[in-house]
């Protein structure tokens, strides 16, 4: 079994997303089974391309070339075909996060000048999204895939049949520098921003990941439960396996741990895309042997806890490769690899990227991370200036994270700039506070936040779903392990659950509001 010996070559990314799909179909064979949907339906390259041409031809009549079109679908064949149907004819998918709420989605749509949103009756019904659709329909025209399919004309079917044979007669040929997709930030720190990624940005990241992590097209099977509105789920979970010839198993939601564990076993999946939160749930819910076919799990979006790593290795002998990304970088910035896996780090930069660290007052080790490379976005779109692109200065993206980088280039995340508290003139990482709690109560979730303190400026509090959580144990642990007592929260609250975003990250916006409420503090005016 030989891995793909792969070098990163920027030239491979100088094409559009649909052309890259056509090239993969030619390379790996049109009859190759490449995607398995949540209902077990298996699709070949030919079927995906045919469906994309037919559906795209129908959508072409409802949209304009270059238009940003909202796509709001769960992870699955429908989302992939909808995405490529728009790409085939020069439309730009704008990936709508159906967990974000109508207010955020309206702000996102305004920023990207979206007027139409594609979804599916079945999805709306199963997800009980009728109230959301009702609110969105005030601002957007809602297009249902079932209605479009039922109305397919002879011309649409001809496009589906002949498009794969004579693609140049049907497909658009956008520049690789033009916009390929728009995704959105979570909106926890204000209105969501549109993140504009070019075809080259996304395909560069695909090429970077392929060069960084050994993949085996003949035997690897990738399991992706992550949403396609999340850049990790889209680029690494949907686009990469299609381009690299790796069969992928799609699951419509990451929130079904037992079903996912069984399905990984039944499909013989070898690679799992997850977050720390999700993989720890799958590992606990699974029976012995359920995850035995996995050779590695690539985890991003949040720090992988030592407890998770040890449990997964002990129970299933799975190697976790922790990575780090940002939607603005399409998204993978750094990752560990099988031959270079250093726990506690997020690995080394993707090939073709460069970084710089800017000093942060009050923090001695490390600095604020800026990155630049072919995968870094074209720019932001804001609801305050709809459609106006705000490019990164000189191509440098400010990640907002404080990191250290060792001599071998391995990156350690110390925390987000906004997730440091200033207590008595000292900078305290809220991530360290959470790590202390995780060490004592490893089977639970913990989230630290700050509340105003009239004497010290800020005060650290901890929310935890551990019933036994208490401050004395945290203080004793900190004293026994040489951790500054400043990292011990002043107040500790037990909550039923820690709020989590649809991407698997802790929803720190909701955590902050809950902390203020529990502490009896009036939130500051917006």
Could you explain how this protein is built, in words?
The protein has 526 residues and is α/β, with parallel strands linked by helices. The protein folds into 2 domains: 18-404, Rossmann fold (3-Layer(aba) Sandwich), CATH 3.40.50; 424-518, GMP Synthetase, Chain A, domain 3, CATH 3.30.300.30. A 9-stranded mixed sheet has the order 2-1-10-9-11-12-13-14-15, sandwiched between helices. The protein has a 4-stranded parallel sheet with strand order 4-3-5-6.
Q: How is the topology of this model organized?
A:
Layout lengths: L16 H12 L4 E4 L5 E3 H16 L7 E4 L5 H12 L3 E4 L6 H10 L4 E4 L1 H6 L3 H7 L4 E4 H6 L3 H9 L16 E6 L9 E5 H14 L8 E4 L6 H14 L2 E4 L6 H11 L3 E4 L1 H10 L10 E4 L6 H11 L2 E7 L6 E4 L12 E2 L4 E7 L2 E10 L6 E4 L2 E6 L6 E9 L5 E6 L3 E4 L2 E4 H11 L5 E8 L3 E8 L6 H10 L10 E4 L13 H11 L8
Parallel strand pairs: 1-10, 3-4, 3-5, 5-6, 9-10, 9-11, 11-12, 12-13, 25-26
Antiparallel strand pairs: 1-2, 7-8, 8-18, 13-14, 14-15, 16-17, 17-20, 18-19, 20-21, 22-23, 24-25
Helix pairs in contact: 1-10, 2-3, 2-8, 9-10, 11-12, 12-13
List keywords for this structure.
alpha/beta, GMP Synthetase, Chain A, domain 3, 2 domains, 9-stranded mixed β-sheet, 4-stranded parallel β-sheet, 16 helices
